[in-house]
Design brief:
Mean pLDDT: 93
Number of strands: 19
Structural class: alpha+beta
Radius of gyration: 22 Å
Length: 450
């Protein structure tokens, strides 16, 4: 039944749907929109989980970040004698049996194992429980850039030797991207929206951003969101080598990832996962959860320019940051920190620097901008999620992580990159940038929880 509120606003309540609808506009040309599009709820972070080359667990990672310690080393999992790039960020301390029932490990590629481990950490910290009453409103979104490439490589070799005889029935479920959120949803009984975002190096950020939007507009009430990647095999590393994307600083692996440094020569391929538990704020407060940070903005767009290179002068990235600030109604002058995409590639670092200048003008020089990839390397589809967790920790603990290996200033990269040493700082608003092949861009905004 329609209820006229004013000349420009009419509310219609449906008797068959609990959702309210509003007629926005005048009486003759109004537009019917869901109240979910009008009423925006605040979204907070209550749990964190990390699996990276710096270690398994939030505290191991934070200790390494603040100390400026690199997780990069020689590749040990396969023969790289003939590879021009022989270094990577391997996760060395992850024991799947710490997180997953032994009988289930064989059903999961390593990227799924990492995702489950990170999610279990986040759920434990959050204290959030999926129950019969809330299960349909709890989602799981996990970003994955490549998926089970190592499983494909392994079983292709077996197939060439023996045909179908040694192909496991778990082959397909082990490798497809959506089995990361699928396994997590099954584990906790979360029956809400469940899918994997695949957008190259922005995959993890897209997952968190889309989960945030769904909670904000009332489609779900809570989510486990994040990203995972484990593509360190000969095909994975080899593919990036032939693109000439990787650093060949093999003799000094800890110094190879050097975002914004004039002598950068490519990124260092890595692996890992991160997860966050995010919830509608009032619900989190009612259950007594500790709020670690609030997600206060999100935007995604595309350069529509080139499959691997950023648009000139970082135009697409700049638009994405602006849209994120607009989405959250944020004052650009409140942004104190940016966790940069900062991959250590010649073009990418310049483009991101230009984008930040376009958005913030003269104030850009006074914003702390660090690339934690200088320590973790580039974790591909997991990067946006891992770096979102780092950004949340920076806000919560009042410390900006450094950009290590920043030794030779580049005149084209002339911002404050928090060089080489962590910095204490009160952070009012922080942005996390993630960009990917195909020209995909994401920006997430965070602020202290309250």
């Amino acid at each position: 039944m329609p209820m006229r509120c004013s000349q420009n606003l009419r509310v219609r309540l449906s008797t068959t749907d609990p959702i309210c609808y509003m007629m926005v506009g005048n009486a003759h040309g109004g537009k019917l929109v869901s109240m979910r599009q009008i009423v925006e709820r605040r979204v907070v972070v209550t749990g964190l989980g990390l699996v990276t080359p710096l270690g398994t667990g939030v505290e191991k990672n934070w200790e390494a970040l603040v100390a400026g310690r690199s997780g990069i080393g020689p590749i040990t999992r396969f023969d790289v004698t003939d590879f021009p790039a022989r270094i990577a960020g391997e996760v060395r301390d992850f024991n799947p049996e710490d997180w997953i029932e032994k009988r289930d490990i064989k059903k999961m590629d390593l990227f799924i194992q990492y995702a489950v481990g990170a999610s279990e950490q986040a759920m434990r910290q959050s204290g959030f429980k999926v129950t019969e009453e809330n299960a349909d409103a709890v989602g799981v979104l996990i970003g994955v850039g490549i998926g089970g490439l190592c499983t494909i490589e392994e079983y292709h070799k077996e197939f060439l030797k023996t045909g179908l005889k040694r192909i496991t029935p778990f082959f397909i479920p082990k490798l497809i991207s959506n089995l990361a959120p699928g396994q997590i949803g099954i584990r906790y009984g979360a029956r809400g929206v469940n899918f994997s975002t695949t957008s190259a190096c922005a995959s993890g950020s897209h997952a968190i951003g889309e989960a945030y939007r769904m909670i904000r507009h009332g489609y779900i009430d809570a989510a486990i969101a994040g990203g995972s990647e484990a593509a360190l095999c000969s095909l994975g590393v080899g593919g990036f080598i032939v693109m000439r994307a990787l650093s060949t600083r093999n003799e000094e692996p800890e110094r190879a990832s050097r975002p914004f440094d004039k002598e950068r020569d490519g990124f260092v391929m890595s692996e890992g996962a991160a997860a966050v538990v995010i919830e509608e704020r009032e619900s989190a407060i009612r259950r007594g959860a500790k709020i670690l940070a609030e997600i206060c903005g999100y935007a995604a767009n595309a350069d529509a320019y080139h499959i691997t290179s950023p648009s000139p002068e970082g135009v697409g990235a700049a638009k994405c940051m602006r849209k994120c600030l607009e989405d959250g109604g944020l004052d650009p002058n409140e942004v104190d920190y940016i966790n940069a995409h900062g991959t250590s590639t010649p073009q990418g670092d310049v483009a991101e620097t230009q984008a930040i200048k376009h958005v913030f003008g003269e104030r850009a020089a006074r914003i702390g901008v660090s690339s934690t990839k200088s320590m973790t390397g580039h974790t591909l589809g997991a990067a946006g999620a891992i770096e979102s967790v780092f950004t949340i920790l920076a806000i919560e603990r009042g410390i900006m992580p450094p950009t290590i290996n920043y030794e030779h200033p580049d005149p084209d990269c002339d911002l404050d990159y928090v060089p080489n040493k962590a910095r204490e700082a009160k952070i009012r608003v922080a942005l996390n940038n993630s960009f990917g092949f195909g020209g995909t861009n994401t920006t997430l905004a965070f602020r202290p929880g309250s």
